[in-house]
């Protein structure tokens, strides 16, 4: 997807799921189901599995997908070209993480995305995020606020998709990556819709695309 000249400077550290863990097995299950081509089925909670674990595993996977997709167009997304994190003229996003930046600040798109990709998933505490170090080792339970944190993370990941589609889709097409972007986004949308993880109002910047992608699977 990316030439060597870009990849070394644009990709953020990948969020890895420990091999041999139950989460790793869940990720492999998800990948195998995706291979069937049925995205609606692929996002469903596997029988007998914990919902929090399923959401955690998939959130990390989406983080890595978006990280890679955005990494291919960072040379076009700069402080000069994208001084505000936006999704078209009607939607502007400000950043706050509740710790270092408590009051939402206006920032450029690359800065916003850098905050998201290099922070603790934009949450107050690393133990809250889906890639937290312990990952339920020895049956450690998920924190009580896990679902609300996961929803915040996924909302912010959606904003990166929205920014790419609104501001950089021409570049995506020139790189011949539109099929990859569309498939990744379709998987993401089916997942968040399946578990009602993003408020419908947040999806407004890409609502027309979402309806188009969904209509093909009815």
Automatic annotation (TrEMBL):
<feature type="binding site">
    <location>
        <position position="77"/>
    </location>
    <ligand>
        <name>Zn(2+)</name>
    </ligand>
</feature>
<keyword id="KW-0862">Zinc</keyword>
<dbReference type="Pfam" id="PF03637">
    <property type="entry name" value="Mob1_phocein"/>
</dbReference>
<keyword id="KW-0808">Transferase</keyword>
<keyword id="KW-0479">Metal-binding</keyword>
<keyword id="KW-0418">Kinase</keyword>
<dbReference type="InterPro" id="IPR036703">
    <property type="entry name" value="MOB_kinase_act_sf"/>
</dbReference>
<feature type="binding site">
    <location>
        <position position="82"/>
    </location>
    <ligand>
        <name>Zn(2+)</name>
    </ligand>
</feature>
<feature type="binding site">
    <location>
        <position position="168"/>
    </location>
    <ligand>
        <name>Zn(2+)</name>
    </ligand>
</feature>
<feature type="binding site">
    <location>
        <position position="163"/>
    </location>
    <ligand>
        <name>Zn(2+)</name>
    </ligand>
</feature>
<dbReference type="GO" id="GO:0016301">
    <property type="term" value="F:kinase activity"/>
</dbReference>
<protein>
    <submittedName>
        <fullName>MOB kinase activator 1A</fullName>
    </submittedName>
</protein>
<dbReference type="InterPro" id="IPR005301">
    <property type="entry name" value="MOB_kinase_act_fam"/>
</dbReference>
């Amino acid at each position: 997807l990316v030439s060597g000249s870009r990849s070394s400077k644009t990709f953020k550290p990948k969020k890895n799921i420990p091999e041999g863990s139950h989460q790793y097995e869940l990720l492999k299950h998800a990948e195998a189901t995706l291979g069937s081509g049925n995205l609606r089925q692929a996002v469903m909670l596997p029988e007998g599995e914990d919902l929090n674990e399923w959401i955690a595993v998939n959130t990390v996977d989406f983080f890595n997908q978006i990280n890679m997709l955005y990494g291919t167009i960072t040379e076009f997304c700069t402080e000069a070209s994208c001084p505000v994190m936006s999704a078209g003229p009607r939607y502007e996003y400000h950043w706050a993480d509740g710790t270092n930046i408590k009051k939402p600040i206006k920032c450029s798109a690359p800065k916003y995305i850098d905050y998201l990709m290099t922070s603790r998933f934009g949450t107050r505490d690393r133990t809250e995020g889906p890639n937290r170090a312990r990952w339920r080792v020895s049956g450690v339970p998920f924190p009580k606020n896990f679902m609300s944190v996961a929803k915040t993370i996924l909302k912010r990941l959606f904003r990166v998709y929205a920014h790419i589609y609104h501001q950089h889709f021409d570049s995506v097409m020139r790189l011949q990556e539109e099929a990859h972007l569309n498939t990744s986004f379709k998987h993401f949308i089916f997942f968040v819709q399946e578990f009602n993880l993003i408020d419908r109002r947040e999806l407004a910047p890409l609502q027309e695309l979402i309806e188009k992608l969904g209509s093909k699977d009815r």
